Amino acid sequence: MKAETFISDDYRPAEDEPFMNDRQLEYFRRKLLAWKDEILDDSRDTIEGLQETTRNIPDVADRASEETDRALELRTRDRQRKLVAKIDAALRRIDEGEYGYCEVTGEPISLKRLDARPIATMSLEAQERHERREKVHRDD
């Protein structure tokens, strides 16, 4: 087991330090874990809310409105469930020493991109190429 790396709360990865050093990895690990905890807390709140608000509403329009709200909330939670899987995959990449490198080119993903989207698996350029190819194939 690797010793824990200590970083201050105001630490931000910088371009002038070695890429994906222990401090940067710890920064992104903490960021990913905090994001996952936030999503799981929101999910628990949703489940509790849905259990508490189950009631028989006699007005058809009010019932339809509430069911629409519930469906939207459940769709949001499903998207977040998929996001948790991506967060877990990013945490695995950290543990395996693959985090921060583009899965297509093998080049480092920019720190700005990782800070904005810590689950990113491709560099911005590779992602743009991927999206252009995807758009071309969708148009066929």
Automatic annotation (TrEMBL):
Domain Zinc finger DksA/TraR C4-type: 97-132
Domain DnaK suppressor protein DksA N-terminal: 24-94
A Pfam short name: DksA_N
Span of zinc fingers (dksA C4-type): 102-126
Record bears the keyword Protease: no
Classification via SUPFAM superfamilies: DnaK suppressor protein DksA, alpha-hairpin domain, Glucocorticoid receptor-like (DNA-binding domain)
Key words, A-Z: Cytoplasm, Metal-binding, Zinc, Zinc-finger
Entry's localization field: Cytoplasm
Similarity comment text for this entry: Belongs to the DksA family.
Subunit structure: Interacts directly with the RNA polymerase.
Protein role: Transcription factor that acts by binding directly to the RNA polymerase (RNAP). Required for negative regulation of rRNA expression and positive regulation of several amino acid biosynthesis promoters.
Protein name: RNA polymerase-binding transcription factor DksA
Organism (species): Thalassovita aquimarina
UniProt gene name: dksA
